[in-house]
Amino acid sequence: MGANHIVFAPKYRRKVAYGKIKQDIADILSMLCKRKGVKIIEAEICPDHVHMLVEIPPSISVSYFVGYLKGKSTLMIFERHANLKYKYGNRHFWCRGYYVDTVGKNAKKIQEYIANQLQDDLEYDQMTLKEYIDPFTGEPVKRNK
């Protein structure tokens, strides 16, 4: 069973919160790994991303595991820190996607990946913000929650 390097990043607008609750995030991620029988060889909550070297049981695909990890941790983070949900709305804590490789910790590729993710995230956020501006009046559209 080989190890996988997995990297994913918090959404741009959540970076401040992410920095403040690093320890909580670490606890949540390690608990979720235990639940799935995933062995953490090395993990690091870096200023703008999470880096994990993990051994995933052969019965679980990497994409399923990362989806589970990001999805569940989001719910748990919002549960423990309800104020985040009110402050930033939508239910996503992490950027879409992730970076994975089976070789070594490719620092350059990881750096590129994170820069692209955060850029994507900003553009995506601006797109979704724009959608709520009425094209005729230029006024924000009032949405019913």
Question: Could you please describe the fold and organization of this structure?
Answer:
By secondary structure, this protein is an alpha+beta fold. It has helices spanning 15-20, 22-35, 62-80, 82-88, 107-130; strands at residues 3-8, 39-46, 49-55, 99-101. A four-stranded antiparallel beta sheet has the order 2-3-1-4, with helices on both faces. The longest helix has 24 residues, at 107-130. It is globular and about 60 Å long.
List strands and helices in order, with pairings.
Layout lengths: L2 E6 L6 H6 L1 H14 L3 E8 L2 E7 L6 H19 L1 H7 L10 E3 L5 H24 L15
Antiparallel strand pairs: 1-3, 1-4, 2-3
Salient structural properties:
alpha+beta, single chain, 48% helix, four-stranded antiparallel sheet, 145 residues
Quick rundown:
With 145 residues, this protein is an alpha+beta fold. 48% of the residues lie in helices and 17% in strands.
